[in-house]
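BUG: 3D viewer hangs when loading the predicted structure for this chain

Environment: internal workstation, default settings.
Expected: structure renders.
Actual: progress bar stalls at 90%.

Input used:
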Amino acid sequence: MTATLVGYARCSTDKQDLTAQQARLQELGVAPDRIYMDRGLTGTTRARPGLDQALAAVRAGDTLVVPKLDRLARSVPDARQIADALVVRGVKLALGTSVYDPADPMGKMFFNILATFAEFETDLIRLRTREGMAIARAKGKLRGKRPKLSDKQQKELWRMHDTGEYS
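Structure tokens produced before the viewer hung:
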């Protein structure tokens, strides 16, 4: 039985493009029909259909290939859980051109460092977003969701309701 390369790509929003990740996976030797993708799902969301399909597609001796670790997971525990589950099944994990080897102490340390940086990056994004929202709120620019109806439309609805003919 020959080893198969199975690829996984992810982007956080529907507006982002997966073309670069797909191209990178193909450069790494993954066949286009073996690339599974998730669009509009963050790495902190564990329920990802594309990832579930990729994990189901790999068999013992196969290699799961991701362009970068942050595409697979955005937290250290999640990355460890996925990697450990792959090891138990006899599946290798390739992060770009590097194959993760849990038996090698240096490989394990490198993997944990990469996972820590992926989690750190997510935390920085959250921090910057909260800071930006606080500044906007202080300037009066962030007032929450805008009403769907204009003032004129709201007044008309109240007028109709007050007549007693409408609920």
